[in-house]
Design brief:
The chain is mainly β. It is about 5% helix and about 45% strand. Strands 3, 4, 5, 6, 7, 8, 9, 10 and 11 form a nine-stranded antiparallel sheet that branches. A two-stranded antiparallel sheet has the order 1-2. It starts with 7 loop residues before the first strand and ends with a strand.
Length: about 190
């Protein structure tokens, strides 16, 4: 083909009457690309409740608040029940699927947002095993508009969740950072 360049260089070796031909790689022209659907399919099975939820790339910053929140697809009552979301917040009735996080192929990670009250918006990352049992969870974003004194935002990395809690009780904002580790088994632990 026009423009085609081989990635091997032919070489011939002569020794004791024998001829051996070698092909050495001169320049690696291999291109590997992953399609979103194939990565998503390996992490989120097609029969899963999470299949229609978009995966994110990391690092990813989540700062969900009342100003930037868009009502993403609502989970049905049946989906919320299967995902045991009533154990996360007893007061919330409407949960919104946000995105999935590809931490592992051995467990599923999904992020949901919900209103704990009229003035509170919470975003939670939840890890599930393949049978939809909760392995671990952590609130990664929080906003309240009653007094506008507290906020939470996070950075999701390859195996860590860094949560910044911001308080405006005094004259200056006070920021407290907590770091969580996502273990290979899906559990989430707080680093000291």
């Amino acid at each position: 083909k026009d423009g085609y360049q081989t990635d091997t260089i032919a070489s011939v070796w002569h020794q004791a009457g024998e001829t051996t031909e070698y092909n050495f790689i001169g320049k690696d022209t291999t291109i590997v690309s992953l399609k979103t659907n194939s990565v998503k399919a390996s992490i989120v099975p097609s029969n899963s409740l999470f299949h229609g939820i978009t995966p994110i790339k990391r690092p990813f910053r989540d700062s969900t608040n009342f100003d930037n929140f868009r009502e993403s697809p609502k989970l049905t009552d049946q989906e919320a029940s299967v995902l045991k979301l009533n154990t996360i917040s007893s007061g919330a009735r409407i949960f919104y699927s946000r995105y999935t996080v590809p931490f592992s192929t051995h467990f599923k990670s999904v992020v949901v947002s919900y209103r704990a009250s009229e003035h509170e918006l919470i975003t939670t990352l939840i890890n599930y095993d393949m049978d939809d049992h909760i392995l671990g969870k952590v609130d990664i974003a929080y906003d309240e508009i009653a007094e506008s004194q507290f906020r939470k935002e996070s950075l999701l990395t390859m195996d860590k969740i860094i949560v910044d809690e911001i308080s405006w009780i005094g004259n200056e904002p006070v920021r407290k950072t907590k770091t969580y580790e996502v273990l290979p088994n899906g559990k989430i632990i707080r680093n000291q």
